[in-house]
Amino acid sequence: MMKEYKTISEVAGPLMLVKDVENVTYDELGEIILQSGEKRLCKVLEINGTDALVQLFESAAGINLAESSVKFLGRGNQLSVSPEMLGRVFDGMGRPADGGPAIIAEKRLDINGLPMNPAARDYPAEFIQTGVSAIDGLNTLVRGQKLPIFSASGLPHADLAAQIARQAKVIGGESNFAVVFAAIGITYEEADFFASDFRRTGAIDRTVMFMNLANDPAVERIATPRMALTAAEYLAFDLGMHVLVIMTDITNYAEALREVSAARKEVPGRRGYPGYLYTDLATMYERAGRKRGQEGSITMIPILTMPEEDKTHPIPDLTGYITEGQIILSRDLYRKGVQPPIDVMPSLSRLKDKGIGAGKTREDHADTMNQLFAAYARGKESLELMTILGEAALSDIDLMYAKFSQEFEKQYVSQGYEKDRTIEETLNLGWELLKLLPKSELKRIKDEYIEKYLG
Prior knowledge:
Elongation Factor Tu (Ef-tu), domain 3; single chain; V-type ATP synthase beta chain; 22 strands; ten-stranded mixed beta sheet; elongated; 12 helices; alpha/beta; ATPase_F1/V1/A1_a/bsu_N
């Protein structure tokens, strides 16, 4: 039988101290019962002997120390899951936020889960088509991969996230593909943009959305990505689906973690973030992947805004250590009007070689990718020289590369947020751009592919 404690001794902001408790554990959920009969959730942050420090999920207003009581539920945060989740919008705690009925649970799963056992992992090796040429052609996403997007304040990462969520598919397995979208600490305006965009395009039918707003409590923000990953694990490993998890914005998650850490009076680490930030991020990111002997998979695209556009800031720095590459958005390209402003040079997908080639994308993919990278890099150098020395100082071949670089940004990278390109369209566009260069310059492509695709 659950005990009800009327020993609340102190409330300070979002924290509350309950004395003389028994058998209460860290991270356990509690229910605060107010004098009016209203119930509010809380979570145990710290146990010190018989004292429990809890954090409120809602406002502390109306809590009367003498008349209110607390009941600990004997479990952590759980999510009700079932196939009916697809097409639904939930808040950050997994409660319906679309006006629909509550989910009839097939299972109730603890949201903390476990990182995937390395020995049980299968190597990511299958191409996922996002419909975005700068990703599909040059920094290919592979099923089971973790590929973050590094953005900055004011850059259109929300538009890119919505585009990927709408367009992403596993070639030949579209019917068994789902998207889990977690919005962490976003504004009402952004939440409305994502929800209306998914409904407008019909993508909502294969999507599970978790929306945590900027005015929701910090402790709920920490739960939101874990809610999304729990839903993804159910869809992938119970229902055998290919699941793409998009989480925006991881920076808001880390800020909430720092806030809770400060409330617990923990010793701060770099830039005030808790010393366990790396471990905490890893417990989320490592839940993505493929399992041996199982059809389903979880592929993850976490999106984060780099404070002050600093790649060495703890959040992008630690994320880069844990994940397999990064897609970087550029403010210079954004100012030029390139949509999406993906800077392909510093971007990297460490697993792209495993997901391309004959039988996956096309036989010429690796060669054309390398040639496009090399030509674009030389073209950018030529443009810099032109700025310093003037056009007259460049050779004819340098001018060709400079023109290639400009056309590459204009046609290949800048495709808009509504255009969905197949991998064949992306590869063919690459060949069209390579026609701007003499055949003698295509040194990274096999002659047989030049004959077949260049004519």
